[in-house]
Write a structure and sequence with these properties.
The protein is mostly beta strands. 0% of the residues lie in helices and 52% in strands. The model has no long low-confidence stretch (mean pLDDT 96).
């Protein structure tokens, strides 16, 4: 079993940056592709970014492409999301999640990101 704990959220002005981290417990971190999702108030959870097991392949939602960067450090069992040029519409609870196949098996508890205009 894998436990995921996000950190790094907070309040930032529009145009600012934040880096989220997701620490994974257990020995099987490298067997999971990892993703970031977010959920704004009154909206459904949406995909943000995904990274392959090795970190060699990434993909992003169009809304964050060019502004966010997903990365992972397998030696530290940690996933990251560097968020630059933040916009008020990026305000949401951000979740990390891990999957081996098509379904995401494990989810973190989320970290709040608030971008003020």
């Amino acid at each position: 079993q894998v436990q995921l704990v996000e950190s790094g959220g907070g309040l930032v002005q529009a145009g600012g940056s934040l880096r989220l981290s997701c620490a994974a417990s257990g020995r099987s971190f490298t067997t999971y592709a990892m993703g970031w999702f977010r959920q704004a108030p009154g909206k459904e959870r949406e995909f943000v970014a995904i990274i392959s097991r090795s970190g060699g392949s990434t993909a992003y939602a169009d809304s964050v492409k060019g502004r966010f960067t997903i990365s992972r450090d397998n030696a530290k069992n940690t996933l990251y999301l560097q968020m630059n040029s933040l916009k008020p519409e990026d305000t949401a609870v951000y979740y990390c999640a891990g999957r081996r196949d098509q379904e995401y098996d494990y989810w973190g508890q989320g970290t709040q990101v608030t971008v003020s205009s």
